[in-house]
Write a structure and sequence with these properties.
single chain, about 700 residues, PH-domain like, 8-stranded mixed β-sheet, 15 helices, DNA-binding, chromosome, RNA binding, SSRP1/POB3_N
Length: about 700
């Protein structure tokens, strides 16, 4: 039989919410690691008292009871895993994994049993539901009634806030069943009561989140923050981690307390408590306990009388009471020698600390990211200036953090740190190109070969060639569709001085035409065909061939590791300088070898580009044919509409006659024969139809 069993995607029930993580069973005990917080629950094999297997909402669950009364629940198992778990418990823990199903009768009366940290409501021998008493925030009593109130769970969409139990009266004298019930609950409930004196008090400490100055009273089981407006009581069981971080100015210290669940102020949640101390501030501290109690309780970690820097005293007391290690920055050192990096997160500037097992950003908002929850990191160029870069972190849950405006001098140190921690770098595949992109930080005045500039020039040449090809093609298309002769003819007809007068002109118009000189015809200049503006800028096609690299870039990619090995510890900027010098000093014959390779790569690119353009043109022709077909359909509908309008106009002959009628006296004698023939046609029309009235002719002359 295997010595360990591991299960992924197991859910632990904590304060009414299901936290996913990984469960590992070994000879030594049971270990559960929360995927969200990274918190580890370790149950020693010697502490296990009972194991129960039962059917739950998420499949099957495992409930473990310890000898000191604690209960741990894990859900998400498959039914087929029972035999494997049962055999493991027998072999390594000497426990029978009992099968107990919950009662689903739906009755609301039964028996309450208190066992360890659990309140169990049973019907017969089967439990209906269980309440972990650590979830109870308040317990109140009434006549034959007990009310339990629970801590609000921010992670759950719906939270159970209150349960009421009716306790029937008994005939026993001297025992009140309601009070006995309440005492059993309060003895195990998480009800914070500030009874007795504080162990010590730190007054007027500067707190960054929540902002203000607070007195911190240290009690045996909780921490009391007392401010002018707000009070917070923080149980030590909610403290996840402690951090002690030096400020970049080397004169101040941050003390960070990570909390889960967070403290609340209205709708605001504070997952971190951040205190700021000056290194120069000292304190003499006396604990409110006798020396024997101090020695027995803290086992030499604290003494009754202590003195030293304020931040040291606070961190030392918290470490002893919370019983957790204090995390400090590791061996990382930035460009300025500080153990942090100045950057911006969202809208605020702060400090990013690379730790041994994660990153922490202070202070607004505080962010802690563990290495084991990081999917990858990315080094990106700054969006506003080339003097800085961005550091992006994406977690396995898909959350992205972008720390921007990091000075370029910090890049080498941070990149080496990330490499040493073996974090996945998103652009590692483009590592060489990415490193070269930071060559632009070097001063342009220096007389050296600029690798980044060479690459940009090469890409610019190829871009211009592609632009010329595309512009030639687009010009031919516009010439085919543009007919300047037709357009000019249309405009000339509109302003033609020889055009015949319209039928609506009368005597007054003809007289005016004799007196006034004829207006000059407007000269219409030939209009140049306009190029069609692209409707929208197309994004880069991922299927398009990639541009070839220059001879220098091909040589640099092949020689980079050799340069690094010849000059260990060389920075990125110095490496590019050295490469430029080596390339300059290289003989012409060797350079020609790399030029040939670059030429081969360029030919392959041009060949691939022609095939890509050919495929693209086929797609364009198909779309043109489709467009022409749609235009024909629209035109056919328009012709039908025109035919119907003509038929409707023929039904009103009187109106058509008045528009085309010309009287004889208005026709000049020197007009051409074509005008006479038109006149005869109009006479024939007049004979065939009734003559217009005098009113109609008068309106025509007007």
């Amino acid at each position: 039989m295997a010595d360990t069993l591991e299960f992924n995607e197991i859910y632990q029930e904590v304060k009414g919410s299901m936290n996913d993580g990984r469960l590992r069973l070994s000879r030594q005990g049971v270990i559960f690691k929360n995927s969200k917080t990274g918190k580890v629950d370790n149950i020693q094999a010697s502490e296990l008292a009972e194991g129960v297997w039962r059917r739950v909402a998420l499949g099957h669950g495992l409930k473990l009871l310890t000898k000191n009364g604690h209960v741990y629940k894990y859900d998400g198992f498959r039914e087929s895993e029972f035999d494997k778990l049962s055999d493991f418990f027998k072999a390594h823990y000497c426990l029978e994994l009992a099968e107990k199903d919950l009662c689903v009768k739906g009755w609301n009366w039964g028996t309450v049993r208190f066992g360890g940290q659990l309140l169990s409501f049973d019907i017969g021998e089967q439990p209906v539901f269980e309440i972990p008493l650590s979830n109870v925030s308040q317990c109140t009593t009434g006549k034959n009634e007990v009310t339990l109130e629970f801590h609000q769970n921010d992670d759950a969409e719906v939270s159970l806030m209150e349960v009421r139990f009716y306790v029937p009266p008994t005939q026993e004298d001297g025992v009140d069943p309601v009070e006995a019930f309440a005492q059993n609950v309060l003895s195990k409930a998480d009800v914070i009561q500030a009874t007795g004196d504080a162990i010590c008090i730190f007054r007027e400490l500067q707190c960054l989140t929540p902002r203000g100055r607070y007195d911190i009273r240290i009690y045996p089981t909780f921490l009391h923050l007392h401010g002018k407006t707000f009070d917070y009581k923080i149980p030590y069981t909610t403290v996840l981690r402690l951090f002690l971080l030096p400020h970049k100015d080397q004169r101040q210290m941050f003390f960070v307390i990570s909390l889960d669940p967070p403290i609340k102020q209205g709708q605001t949640r504070y997952h971190f408590l951040i205190l700021l101390f000056s290194k120069d501030e000292d304190i003499s501290l006396t604990l409110n306990m006798n020396e024997e109690e101090v020695e027995k309780r803290f086992e030499g970690r604290l003494t009754k009388n202590m003195s030293g820097s304020l931040y040291e005293m606070v961190s030392r007391v918290m470490k002893a009471l919370v019983n957790r290690k204090i995390t400090v920055p590791g061996n990382f050192q930035g460009h300025s020698g500080a153990q942090c990096i100045t950057c911006s997160y969202k809208a605020s500037s702060g400090l990013l600390y690379p730790l041994e097992r994660g990153f922490i950003y202070v202070h607004k908002p505080p962010v802690h990211i563990r290495f084991d929850e990081i999917s990858f990191v990315n080094f990106a160029r700054g969006t506003t200036t080339t003097r800085s870069f961005d550091f992006e972190i994406e977690t396995k849950q898909g959350t992205q953090y972008t720390f921007s405006s990091i000075e370029r001098e910090e890049y080498g140190k941070l990149f080496d740190f990330v490499n040493a921690k073996k974090l996945n770098i998103k652009n590692r595949g483009l590592k060489e190109g990415m490193k070269q992109s930071y060559d632009e930080y070097a001063d342009s005045d220096e007389d050296q070969h600029d690798a980044y500039l060479e690459r940009m020039k090469e890409e610019g040449k190829i871009r211009e060639e592609n632009a010329n090809d595309s512009s030639d093609g687009s010009g031919e298309e516009t010439d085919e569709s543009f007919n300047p002769g037709e357009e000019d003819d249309d405009v000339a007809e509109e302003f033609d001085s020889n055009a015949s007068a319209s039928s609506s002109s009368g005597d007054g118009d003809s007289d005016r035409e004799d007196k006034k000189p004829a207006k000059k015809a407007k000269i219409v200049k030939d209009r140049k065909p306009r190029k069609k503006q692209p409707e929208s800028k197309k994004g880069k096609d991922p299927n398009a061939p990639k541009r070839p690299m220059s001879a220098y870039m091909l040589w640099l990619n092949a020689s980079r590791e050799k340069i690094k090995s010849d000059h260990p510890g060389i920075s990125i900027t110095d490496l590019s300088k050295k490469a430029g010098e080596l390339w300059k000093a290289m003989s012409k014959e060797k350079k020609e070898e790399w030029d040939r390779k670059a030429e081969d790569a360029r030919r392959d690119y041009e060949k691939a580009m022609k095939e890509y353009s050919k495929a693209d043109s086929h797609r364009g022709e198909r779309s043109k044919k489709k467009k022409k077909k749609q235009e024909k359909q629209v035109k056919g509908k328009g012709d039908k509409k025109g035919a119907t309008s003509k038929s409707s106009s023929s039904k009103s002959p009187a109106k058509g006659m008045s528009d085309s009628f010309k009287s004889k006296e208005f026709v000049s004698s020197d007009e051409s024969s074509s005008a006479e023939s038109k006149k005869e046609d109009s006479e024939d029309e007049g004979a065939a139809s009734p003559a217009p009235s005098s009113e109609d002719s008068a309106s025509g002359s007007d």
